[in-house]
Design goal:
It is built from four helices and no strands. Helix 2 runs antiparallel to helix 3. The longest helix is centred in the middle third of the chain and has 31 residues.
């Protein structure tokens, strides 16, 4: 049995990354078009303006989602993905537990109270 470690490409394939950004961009564009009344009976200038602003909103959303997800992927260590965690993540480890009053020496400063 081989010890296969996932690569960044295995974590999220580029097609999935671009697909997620494209879906978010289409959603932002459609919401912009609907909110500006592009599908209502309006003059042609207003509909054209709504389409241009909808395309701008879609393009900005595509770029922002693509860059954000790509930067978040850089923070993931591929070797840590398959590692099993057997303890709660927000609970301090055993060696990091704070000292109680009985364990603290008498000359130690008292912890601030909130």
């Amino acid at each position: 049995m081989t010890d296969d470690k996932p690569t960044r490409r295995d974590l999220m394939k580029p097609v999935q990354l671009i697909g997620l950004a494209f879906i978010a961009a289409v959603f932002a564009g459609v919401v912009t078009l609907v909110s500006m009344g592009a599908f209502q009976a309006r003059p042609a200038e207003e509909i054209q303006r709504a389409i241009v602003i909808g395309l701008i909103a879609a393009g900005v959303t595509f770029i922002v989602v693509l860059v954000s997800v790509a930067l978040l992927l850089l923070a993931v260590d591929p070797s840590q993905v398959a590692k099993q965690v057997d303890r709660p993540l927000l609970v301090p480890q055993e060696d990091e537990t704070p000292a109680t009053d009985a364990e603290r020496p008498d000359d130690a400063p008292e912890a601030p109270r909130s």
